[in-house]
Amino acid sequence: MPDPAPAAAHAEPQPKPLRGAAPGSPLRGRVRMPGDKSISHRALMFGALAVGTTRIGGLLEGEDVLRTAAAMRALGASVERAGPGAWEVAGRGIGGLAEPADVLDMGNSGTAARLLAGLLAGHPLFAVMTGDASLRKRPMRRVTEPLAATGARFWSREGGRLPLAVQGAAEPLPLDYTLPVASAQVKSACLLAGLCARGTTRVTEPEPTRDHTENMLRHFGAVVRVEDTPAGRVAEVEGQPELAAAPVSVPGDPSSAAFLVVAALLVPGSRLTVEGVGLNPLRTGLFATLREMGADLAVENERTEGGEPVGDLVASHSALRGVEVPPDRAPSMIDEYPILAVAAAAAEGETRMLGLRELRVKESDRLAATAALLAANGVHAAAGEDELAVRGTGGAVPGGGAVVTHMDHRIAMSALVMGLAARAPVSVDDASFIETSFPGFAALVNGTAGGGAIGPA
Ligand SMILES: O=C(O)C1=C[C@@H](OP(=O)(O)O)[C@@H](O)[C@H](O)C1
Ligand SMILES: C=C(OP(=O)(O)O)C(=O)O
């Protein structure tokens, strides 16, 4: 079955303006989310490193993950699509990746680029990575600095930006690294390089971040130890294991579910069930925060699938109130602040979100872009260096704004959701980047809202 093709490398993006119509109809019924993006990237990468054929179900077929699929092929793995969400990866074994013949284009995906840097560092090959205009602005030194201690060498543009050339280490050394910022991507890059090294690689994180790498490495047979110490959470992997191909069932993405959940909370008359959502506690900070704000948000049918907790979320229209979101919660909801800000805009009173410095280096400067999204729609928002304060309107927000999305899928979806619950429609300059993480987003929202909720601007 042919792959859904990612946009051609270096093609000029075609902006796709859209509009979230107001007032929206209630969101009702049952929906399923696309597969988890973090887990999908890892399933393809670990499949490429394993011996045997890894069968993946529920893979996210968004542009970011298709970039990872293409990169794994370019590195010599066989990656085939067997049906919708069903993929098979025949791996090359640890240390077995081949030198790619051409530049690897990671599109809009920070996760793909940073995890791949770890994989490449441990293989004795030369490779060059690039990405789109958003990814080429994002910091890569956070991975190249620790990875250089393996013996790998890196050359990049000024400030450590892509394009990035890598000469991997012939005999990579194990790492012992303490993360200066909470980042699952940096942790994972170090652990991936450590797979190729002899001995134990150790990563200490000041605050726990998503642990999909650790969970999936165990699932493929690696020895991984995780321990909480006074210095933080320590993850260790034993190098040069034989990873054995293992089936992976990818849960629905909680970061995608976030948009549907907030839409249902804000649009009067809504009651929506979002089925099969991954509920790893290192991903669910938004849902805890929404409950503190008074959200009627239940979990049904809790179960474990593919080593990850999964459940059905039931969200009903609710009156929300402002809260303070502590900085130590940020790693468990790092991608959810733009949509939380939309919920906060409709809440009674002020919401303060702390510890947001990392938002400045996502697909856009999300702190600035989120504040601008709210301001364009008549909501008062104050962005500090590391925090955002939103003055809630206590009901439907004015809306009517034209939101600049800066190549950022989460800004685009947040703005369109705001439009569903605003007094006047909200438009975005470009919804095309939604394809990176949530293909079919507008059609799915329209399906639950009786059609026409999101349409051409
Ligand atoms: O490891 C991952 O899959 C991710 C980690 C987070 O990035 P950081 O590691 O930069 O915090 C998150 O923002 C990103 O969407 C996915
Ligand atoms: C930050 C994100 O992804 P990435 O870092 O992989 O581009 C995201 O999806 O919100």
Word description of this protein:
This protein has helices spanning 37-49, 63-74, 110-121, 141-148, 184-196, 212-219, 254-266, 285-292, 337-346, 366-375, 409-420, 441-448, and strands at 18-20, 28-32, 53-57, 78-83, 86-90, 104-105, 126-130, 153-157, 161-167, 176-178, 200-205, 224-229, 232-238, 248-249, 271-278, 296-305, 308-316, 324-325, 350-354, 380-383, 387-391, 397-399, 402-403, 422-424, 426-428, 454-456. The protein has 457 residues and is an alpha/beta fold. It has two domains: 18-36 and 252-456, Alpha-beta prism (UDP-n-acetylglucosamine1-carboxyvinyl-transferase, Chain), CATH 3.65.10.10; 37-248, Enolpyruvate transferase domain (UDP-n-acetylglucosamine1-carboxyvinyl-transferase, Chain, Alpha-beta prism). A four-stranded mixed β-sheet has the order 23-25-1-26. Strand 20 (380-383) and strand 21 form a beta hairpin. Helix 3 (110-121) packs parallel to helix 4 and helix 7 (254-266) packs parallel to helix 9. Residues 38, 111, 183-185, 188, 210, 334-335, 358 line the site of shikimate-3-phosphate.
Helix content: 25-40%
Shape: globular
CATH architecture of the largest domain: Alpha-beta prism
Radius of gyration based on Cα positions: 21 Å
Strand content: 25-35%
